[in-house]
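Letters spell out the chain; backbone shape is given numerically. Both lines appear below:
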Amino acid sequence: MTRMTFAEAARRALAEEMRRDPLVWALGEDLVQGGIFGQYKGLVEEFGTERIVSTPISESTIMGAGLGAALCGTRPIVEMRIADFTLCAMDELVSQIAKVRYMFGGQGRASLVVRMPQGMWRNSAAQHSQCLEAWLTHIPGLVVVAPGTPADAAGLLKSAIRSDDPVVLMEPKNLWTAEGEVADDAAPIPFGVARHAASGDAATVVTWSACVPVVEQGARECGIACDVFDLRSLWPWDEAAVVTSVRRTGRLLVVHEAVTVSGFGAEVVARVVEAVGTGGLRAVERLGAARAPVPFSPPLENAMRITPARVAEAIRRVAGA
């Protein structure tokens, strides 16, 4: 095990996959310079500019080129720089990449990874701080993953690269410098398997991505023993693990950075209610952002953040403490 940042774990995992498979390559803005978060730092020195490719500033071109390269048999890593910029390439992603396997009866496959760093990051304002995860889980044909630890950043990226389906990797911008233990030569982590981060009978708490360390800290601070699950992937997601826990605890709290309205937390709650029934639930709550643009002002941005204190308070409410 080695302690490293989220960005370094992802960079190392990509390098290992590029050494393993010569068909893996990456394209996007400023990749030769190391990428905006340093997640490609040093890779061009080892793999050259034919496999670490800096592109023009045209997201639709980047996404479309990735699709064409995947259909020709390579495994591209399509770097969108931040998730907000994907809006300029949504037609290529939603209407082409997500549907090509189905529409051509499996004769063509978009085996690629779209990296979309999302969420708040040092006062980046309304157009650079969005969480679009719920949009993408709504699209048939896409796998959507959301790591919340350096170890998962490595393992899920490896699984994404090896997948024959298109994978959207929602990487939390606020965690690029967060540190954690990562296994040497980390193994791929299968999609749809949550990480059971803590155990307890008072309530079931579900989270993912940037809220993972926040929820873990909040659960510790409130002193109430809860089942805490880091979903790791949003589609597929580990419905069985969550439902099994809720059947025991009878209480559910879902926490995410994205806007609460129509967020993926609503899907989690709906599926749990369908599986457990209202008679098996004593308390249900979602904790997420207000339906408002993310402000540039640091104090206003902080007012929108999910904090350990807010998580602890929500756990107390749900647990009836």
